[in-house]
Design a protein that fits this description.
The protein has 3 domains: about 90 residues, Jelly Rolls, CATH 2.60.120.380; about 140 residues, Immunoglobulin-like (Sandwich); about 250 residues, Rossmann fold (3-Layer(aba) Sandwich), CATH 3.40.50.1820. The protein contains 13 helices and 25 strands. An 8-stranded mixed sheet has the order 18-19-21-20-22-23-24-25, sandwiched between helices. Helix 8 packs across helix 9 and helix 10 runs parallel beside helix 11. It starts with about 25 loop residues before the first strand and ends with a helix.
């Protein structure tokens, strides 16, 4: 039964965390204070039925949910900036008393506001006849009175998703979940959305099948029993984050910063060989060096981490890659290890890599979409700072790279300062973006109206990125590529059999750098495969 909560627990002013033992909050409210030398505060959370928790944290660097024996259940925030604000969505284990432990820097003010609601799962139980041959056989067996135990034993043995042949260029991939009350959603599906799975009869088998290219590489999560939260369609869509987690029958995971099942993604890897394999990511840094420092920007009014990877070489590396969302690429996907390995194997010339942190969600959304102050930070603060670190940039051998908003930012900064940054490597760039009140694809129009500058472009987009603003990132990237080509830019477009995820971006980054540095690429620029899309789009299940 859905319950309506009321009441507000007001703040505790500047009471120190040391003077405050673990408190028991109401189901909604706000508390604030200042961290003492312990750098820790805690809250005992109530035992609820199925529930939904939304929270906003300010001044907090780490947040963990613990069980009654103080064992970690879920990492909610790790290594956040001390001056950042973070919005969290999660659930508490039903009918269990848990504790929320928050950490921060001594003397830093903190604020914690929250709302906890008991709520039923979203009623999305759907049934459809399967087109997977394996599931068709299972359906017949169930009709004859059999159970699903043997089927799940096979999945435990062989793993998931279920991959079956389709034709010479495609596979049928079926995502599976065992047991759920009302719904299961696929977070990051090949259809470019978060699709619901179907229930096989009245069994514990939930499934959804797609026809995908035979070289598909993508990360995904499964979200069972997404809660019914009310509010706007966006609020309900975001509720999938409450239960999105790894596929328990898939041994391949990506994102090793945290070990709980909510903070990793499962990996579908149909590609025969990759630079950014799980093995490559797990290798330690063996050849080059990584240095982490902080850079304070007067133009932006903040401080961020800037990490620099330098290869081991007798002479300074001539090429420099500047990568946005650097902390994510480093800490969760360890791309420094991948680059270290490919340079050591002479699959890429020696290259410096500058990892520029994007701080938090709020400031990322303000800085990376075309922002003159951020472009000025790059030109007037980051470049001189790099020179002080012993890295003097050459325009022809400097590559700006980023994914999503980061891809957009790479093209924007190059437009503002083409004499400093001569190459753009854009990964699923958000070219749909526009300032409030203007038509979509603002930056594309800026390039259309500007003179041609000495900048080269390498553009990637996922074949599965067909949903979203202005027709989706795939289509927006193609439109951007067309404008650049008509203007006379050196530009190439590289579709990937993937969605909007770091697994594909890591791989594309290596291929793009190989192309820029003059190595023979295994992936040639291409145009959209119309037949491929027709086959893919026809696969509704």
């Amino acid at each position: 039964m859905k319950m309506a909560w009321s009441g507000l627990l007001l703040g505790l002013g500047t009471m120190s965390a040391q003077a405050m033992p673990c408190s028991t909050p109401s189901v909604q409210g706000e508390q604030q204070g200042k961290f003492d030398a312990s750098g820790e505060i805690c809250f005992i959370l109530p035992a609820l039925n199925e529930n939904y928790v939304s929270a906003t944290l300010s001044g907090i660097t780490d947040a963990r949910l613990l069980d009654g024996q103080n064992r970690r259940i879920r990492t909610l925030l790790e290594g956040g900036p001390a001056d950042g604000e973070h919005q969290l969505l999660f659930s508490l284990p039903p009918q269990q008393v848990t504790s929320l432990v928050l950490h921060g820097n001594e003397g830093m003010r903190w604020r914690f506001s929250w709302q906890m609601k008991e709520t039923p799962p979203l009623p999305r139980t759907q049934r459809m006849a399967p087109d997977s041959p394996v599931l068709q056989q299972l359906e017949k067996a169930l009709a004859a009175g059999a159970g699903t135990t043997e089927f799940w034993q096979d999945r435990q043995r062989y793993g998931t998703p279920l991959v079956e042949p389709f034709d010479a260029d495609h596979k049928r991939v079926t995502f599976l979940w065992r047991g759920a009350k009302q719904n299961v959603f696929l977070f990051g599906s090949p259809a470019g959305d978060h699709d619901p799975l179907f229930r096989l009869g009245h069994s514990d088998v939930w499934f959804r099948s797609y026809i995908v290219p035979a070289d598909t590489v993508m990360q995904y999560k499964l979200a069972p029993d997404v809660p019914l939260v009310g509010g706007s369609p966006r609020d309900q869509r975001r509720a999938i984050l409450v239960s999105a987690q790894v596929d328990p029958f898939n041994p391949l995971t990506i994102g090793v910063k945290s070990t709980d099942r909510w903070n990793q993604s499962s990996l579908l890897d149909l590609s025969p060989s990759r630079f950014c394999s799980v093995q490559a990511i797990s290798q330690p840094l063996r050849h080059g060096t990584l240095t982490r420092k902080t850079l304070t920007s007067e133009r932006l009014g903040n401080t961020r981490e800037v990490a620099v990877y330098r290869p081991r070489t007798a002479q300074p590396a001539r090429w420099t890659l500047i990568l946005f969302d650097g902390k994510t690429y480093l800490d969760e996907y360890h791309i420094d290890r991948v680059i270290d390995g490919v340079v050591a194997r002479h699959q890429l010339p020696p290259v410096n890599v500058v990892f520029v942190d994007s701080l938090d969600h709020s400031r990322r959304g303000k800085e990376l979409p075309p922002n003159p102050s951020f472009a000025d930070f790059m030109a007037y603060e980051l470049v001189p700072w790099l020179r002080q670190q012993g890295i003097a940039l050459s325009r022809q051998k400097t590559v700006l790279a980023g994914s999503s908003y980061g891809g957009l930012a790479s093209s924007w900064v190059a437009l503002r300062y083409p004499r400093l940054f001569g190459n753009v490597l854009s990964l699923s760039g958000s070219y749909w973006w526009a300032p409030k009140g203007e038509e979509a694809s603002w930056l594309t129009r800026q390039y259309q109206a500007s003179p041609r500058y000495p900048v080269k472009f390498w553009l990637q987009a996922g074949r599965f990125e067909t949903q979203g603003p202005n027709g989706g990132i795939y289509r927006n990237t193609l439109a951007f590529e067309k404008v650049l080509r008509v203007k006379g830019y050196t530009v190439s477009f590289h579709p990937w059999s993937s969605g909007h995820d770091y697994t594909a971006w890591c791989e594309a980054l290596i291929y793009g750098m190989r192309d820029f540095t003059g190595l023979a690429s295994q992936r040639k620029p291409t145009t959209p495969d119309v037949a491929n899309h027709e086959i893919f789009n026809s696969a509704k299940r």
